[in-house]
Design the sequence.
């Protein structure tokens, strides 16, 4: 396993296209049980995880469970490490593990005037930071108040020439601008030139990035620049979830917890106090079935994933023939609306355990 055309010690742009090479094995999506195959994981600025457990899924461990062989990533200026690690159908490294060399790269712009800042000096040890509720991985409503923390310097309105002072700028869904020029003023770069230390903002449903950057009287970052870490948040808009009747229920027909099944079995879905409608069809009090196999509930505010652990029946099907390996498995039904998003409240069955045997009976 290796990076194609990327060497240890390379200098790279902030937006970097990576190509994954693999020799003597095949690629198969997550959930696909094929011999001598797996899928790629990219480790960024982190050491190897435990090699006998599923590879974490976060901003330092990127999963390519659809079988991708390339990716475009964005890195901050400075030094970074990259490493590829192959995972099996369950995201667990093989034995022995298949992984690339851990390489070091440097993002262009980590030195020089672009990151030095402007003529105004910052105080030693100065910091700007977010206070609650903003933190890495936070889930936020569409409208929320954000508070800006500052240590070691003072607040002063734009245009006010005071030593060791400046004002806040909030960067939303954007990379750092040039640090020796005035910070742009647009929807991705919010200025608080009156000296504000908090603001109410509104963001659309979905993932976002937030970062604070301090600017001097001319909106130019100081030298060295005073900025917070970039944080990733997710905004959840409950209004995007369709309402469901309080007494709606989805269930397995003729399949109880602890049941025995053959490797190939037909599963039937029941639904009461709601109707079935195919994906893409918007009708009140309707939805379509999704079968979760050996997985926890996904996020209830986003479309249900579509993979080997989350089977979609967007044609309005009320039964399905599935194949499972011998052993214990968990099954759960979850209704989704026309956009595959669970209702509010969610309509789902309790998870059940089934035991798959060669004959479909206790052995």
Sequence:
């Amino acid at each position: 396993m290796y990076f194609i055309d990327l060497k240890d010690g390379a200098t790279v742009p902030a937006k970097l296209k990576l190509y994954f090479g693999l020799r003597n094995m095949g690629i198969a999506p997550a959930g696909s049980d094929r011999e001598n195959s797996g899928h790629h994981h990219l480790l960024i600025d982190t050491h190897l995880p435990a090699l006998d457990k599923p590879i974490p899924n976060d901003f330092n461990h990127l999963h390519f469970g659809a079988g991708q062989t390339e990716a475009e990533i964005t890195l901050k200026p400075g030094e970074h490490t990259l490493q590829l690690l192959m995972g099996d159908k369950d995201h667990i490294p093989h034995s022995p593990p298949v992984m690339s060399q851990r390489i070091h790269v440097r993002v262009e712009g980590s030195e020089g005037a672009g990151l030095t800042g402007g003529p105004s000096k910052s105080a030693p040890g100065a910091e700007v930071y977010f206070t609650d509720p903003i933190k890495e991985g936070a889930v936020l409503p569409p409208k929320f108040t954000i508070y800006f923390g500052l240590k070691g310097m003072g607040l002063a309105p734009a245009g006010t020439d005071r030593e060791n002072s400046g004002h806040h700028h909030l960067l939303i869904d954007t990379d750092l601008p040039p640090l020796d020029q005035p910070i742009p003023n647009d929807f991705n770069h919010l200025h608080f030139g009156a000296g504000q230390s908090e603001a109410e903002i509104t963001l659309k449903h979905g993932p976002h990035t937030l970062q604070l950057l301090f600017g001097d009287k001319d909106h130019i970052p100081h030298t060295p620049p005073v900025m917070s870490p970039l944080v990733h948040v997710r905004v959840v808009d409950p209004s995007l979830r369709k309402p469901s009747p309080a007494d709606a229920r989805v269930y397995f027909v003729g399949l109880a917890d602890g049941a025995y099944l053959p490797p190939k079995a037909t599963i039937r879905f029941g639904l009461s106090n709601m109707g079935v409608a195919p994906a893409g069809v918007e009708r009140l009090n309707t939805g379509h079935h999704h079968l979760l196999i050996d997985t926890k509930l996904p996020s209830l505010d986003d479309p249900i994933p579509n993979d080997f652990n989350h089977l979609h029946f967007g044609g309005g099907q009320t039964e399905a023939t599935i194949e499972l390996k011998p052993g214990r498995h968990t099954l759960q039904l979850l209704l989704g609306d026309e956009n595959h998003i669970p209702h509010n409240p969610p309509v789902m069955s309790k998870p059940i355990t089934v035991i798959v045997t060669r004959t479909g009976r206790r052995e």
Remarks:
- Confidence is low (pLDDT under 50) at residues 110-114.
- The chain has three domains: 2-111, 116-237, 249-356.
